Amino acid sequence: MAQTLNSLRIGRLQGKNAVVTGAAGGIGLETCILFAKEGANVLMADISGPGLERASAKLKQVIPSHNKVEVKTCDVSKESDIQALVEHVDSWGGVDVMFNNAGIMHADDADAVDTPEKIWDLTQAINVKGVWFGSKHAVLSMRRHKKAKGSIINTASVVALVGSATPQLAYTASKGAVLAMTRELAIVHAREGFRFNALCPSPLNTPLLQDWLGDDQPKRHRREVHFPSGRFGEAIEQAQAVLFLASDESGYINGQDFVVDGGMTKAYVTPEGDPLPAPTNNALLSTPVDTLHTV
């Protein structure tokens, strides 16, 4: 019988209970797959019920050794939904890891003149209030279950760090708010052992961004030229960073803007030549990835 991290009980998140929002695809799904591979019990949340079912089926296909994996639909802009989501894992022993990842990037988001107020309000409700509600109820769960440590990771963006002449002002403002909120929460809860860090991805090859770029090649090239590697990042590259922040290996990392951008925010003139090859996302595979191979 093939051995796995779960069969040996040696995963980096062995025995931890993790809640992931925005879990139906992209960074959220890739993170759930890695969490399950590394021994966590995972509650997958998303506003799309059908999307969650497909994501859960994919996780179980590629990580057949998984521990507990359950799904729950959730509108993160509603506190009652978040509260019910987090309280769902009370029977598991409470939250150890909370990944507040759900977010939107609306096609009608523009600059200060052209962004409709309803798009501004919708974006803040999901991207900012959703993180606030998730953080609040993660803390309450950790306190309720007398946790000595916990990790909350909030998805921000590099657009909160650098400006863009192709604005999505509501999105940018929301991600700046996530950075500020995460830093403050990190300091407030430091003596309780609850760490807060913000993941700052560069533009990624995710459905969210790719749907927005569509077939507009000039629009796409205007962004790709800023990557030293010559390509967009992949969701699995962000998920690896989230796994690290969720694990005890990052125990002295707190309050950080954790930038995973392939060097984009450090670049001026980028190299010429062919782009580097990208890793394959686990969600694109159809065979298990949890088997340990001996050398």
Automatic annotation (TrEMBL):
Q: Which domain of life is it from?
A: Eukaryota
Which InterPro entries does the UniProt entry name for this protein? NAD(P)-bd_dom_sf (IPR036291), Sc_DH/Rdtase_CS (IPR020904), SDR_fam (IPR002347)
The terms under GO molecular function for this entry are:
oxidoreductase activity
Key words, A-Z: NADP, Oxidoreductase
Among Pfam families, the record links this protein to:
adh_short_C2
Per the UniProt entry, what are the Gene Ontology biological process annotations, in alphabetical order? Answer: abscisic acid biosynthetic process
Q: Which family does the entry's similarity section mention?
A: Belongs to the short-chain dehydrogenases/reductases (SDR) family.
State the name under which the record lists this protein: Uncharacterized protein
